[in-house]
Every structure is written in C-alpha cells, then in structure tokens.
Specification:
The complex is a heterodimer of chains A (240) and B (43). Chain A has a single domain, classed as Four Helix Bundle (Hemerythrin (Met), subunit A) (Up-down Bundle), CATH 1.20.120. In chain A, helix 3 crosses helix 6, helix 3 packs parallel to helix 8 and helix 4 runs antiparallel to helix 8. With 240 residues, chain A is mostly helical. Chain B is mainly alpha-helical and 43 residues long. Chain B is built from one helix and no strands. The radius of gyration of chain B is 19 Å and the shape is rod-shaped. The chains are: A mainly alpha (240), B mainly alpha (43). Chains A and B meet through helix 2, helix 3, helix 4 and helix 8 of A and helix 1 of B.
Chain lengths: 240, 43
C-alpha cells in the first residue's frame, strides 16, 4: 500500500477522496465523543468532573507522540531511499503534531491545577513532553530556515531521528522517575485499569484525533505537491 | 472528591476544539490556495 502511494500521482488520486472521508470520520467520532465524554461518562470518585479533561488530554498526548513516530519513519525513508514524498509527509505532519503537543501541555496544565494544586511541575513526563513540543518547533523552523529544499529535508530528517530518542523517554518517564503522573493505566500488562464507562469515550476521542490527523496530513501533503508544481512551472517560466 | 472543576473542564475543551478548528481551517485554506494556483496554470 505504501509503495503504491509513494508515487505522487497515485497519492493525489487517492487523497482526493480519502482526505474528505477521513475528515468525515473525524467529525463523526468527535461528534459522538464530545457529548459522551462531557455529559454521559461518569464523574470520578476522587477527581470529580475534572476527570473529563482526560478525554481531550490523553489522546493529544498519545498522538503527539504517534505523529512524531510517523515523522521519524518518514524521515528515515526520505534519508535512506531519498524519497521526496516521504519528506513531504514528514514536513506535512509537523504542524499537526506540534498543535497536539501544545494542546497536551495546555490541557495537562488545566487538569493539574485542580487535581495536583499546580499548573506546572518539572517532573519527567511534563519536561519530556515540553522537549517534544520544542523539538517540533525546531523541526518546523529548520525547514523554513533553509532555502534549498533537498538540504532542508536531509537536516530536518536527522533532527527528527535524533528527536525520536525522546519518545521512549516520554513514555517510560512515569516508571523511571518519581512523578506526579500515574503509571500507565490503559496499555499495560494485566489489562486496562480504567473502567469501560470511561474507556469508551476515551477511545472514541482518540479515534477522532487519529482520523483528523489522517485528513489533515493528506491535505497538507496535497498543498505541498500543488506548491511544488506551481514553483516548478514558475521556474520553467510557465507563469505569466 | 474534588468539587466543581467545570471551569477547568470547559477551558480544556475550548482550547482543544478551538485549537483543532483553527488548525483544520489553516490547512484547508492553504490547500485551497495552492490548488487554485495549480489549476490556474493547468497543472
């Protein structure tokens, strides 16, 4: 499938119908997840209503890491096989991942204030997530700072692969260091520790975020391909 | 149990859906801009 889509023409044909489909799926999942998480899911016996922040915070945390892993995989392909579409995919995903990482930090702060009594703490999880956010910004800045796109792609790919070292640090930070965050409670040996009445809306919101990422990354890639075509035509003197 | 907390909940949802909405709008506008230019050049 990936080999098939690595051809820009095929990708454009595929994404023309897949991006709106993914966007519609995101609207449906978030449309179901929003009332489920805000109204129909129960309050927590300790955290009360503030537990509802989990449904927007945790998917943002998951996918900010997932998007960076996607970018690292695309960067690796771009770096090793010099595949232009892989670089386009990595670059297209960066602003989406940066937004998710930013939302994770803000919503985490809004959750921490009433439950922990602090907006911010320099613990392992929060600090490593902040590093991830800054890495996203550095990656975006690097692409913008270098005019030669081939050189920018190579350097950005190296930065992305180095930055990916932070992903296991974010994930295992709650086990490696003493932290305000609780250990993993969903993906863990012995099954999920979260009640199904809360797991349902959480997974629905996470699916909504994933579909939205799929739609937006395809749209961003399409814009980048159109831009390259326009600039190539201009360089050939095709534009009046 | 923590009492209240709705201000924080609404704040978090507002920031999230506002942020995602702005992101989607920017991506859509950027795509429209370049698609229009490519179409104008019959690419």
């Amino acid at each position: 499938m990936l080999t098939y889509l690595s051809n820009p023409q095929r990708f454009m044909a595929f994404s023309a119908w897949a991006a709106p489909l993914f966007f519609a799926a995101a609207v449906i999942a978030l449309g179901v997840g929003l009332p489920w998480s805000l109204v129909f899911s129960p309050a927590d016996y300790q955290q009360g209503e503030t537990v509802r922040i989990m449904y927007v915070h945790v998917p943002a945390a998951w996918w900010s890491m997932g998007v960076f892993a996607f970018m690292a995989a695309a960067s690796f392909v771009g770096l090793v096989w010099r595949h232009a579409l892989a670089d386009v995919a990595a670059r297209a995903a960066a602003p989406i991942g940066a937004t998710l990482a930013g939302l994770c930090l803000i919503t985490g702060s809004l959750w921490g204030a009433p439950t922990w009594g602090t907006w911010w703490e320099w613990d392992g999880r929060m600090t490593s997530m902040l590093v991830l956010f800054v890495t996203y910004l550095g990656y975006i800045a690097l692409w913008s700072a270098i005019e030669d796109e081939e050189k920018a792609a190579r350097l950005a790919a190296i930065l992305c692969l180095v930055g990916a070292i932070n992903l296991p640090i974010v994930h295992f930070s709650v086990e490696w260091w003493s932290t305000l965050h609780q250990p993993a409670s969903i993906v863990r040996s012995g099954g999920s520790a979260i009640h199904p009445s809360m797991l349902g809306p959480l997974l629905t919101m996470a699916a909504g975020y994933l579909f939205l990422f799929g739609a937006l990354v395809m749209m961003n890639m399409r814009a980048a391909i159109f831009r390259r075509r326009v600039e190539s035509a201009r360089a050939r003197g095709g534009e009046a | 149990m923590i009492e209240g907390g709705w201000t924080f909940v609404f704040g978090a949802y507002g920031v999230t859906f506002g942020g995602l909405g702005v992101l989607a709008a920017v991506v859509a506008l950027r795509l429209r801009h370049w698609a229009k230019r490519a179409k104008a050049l019959q690419l």
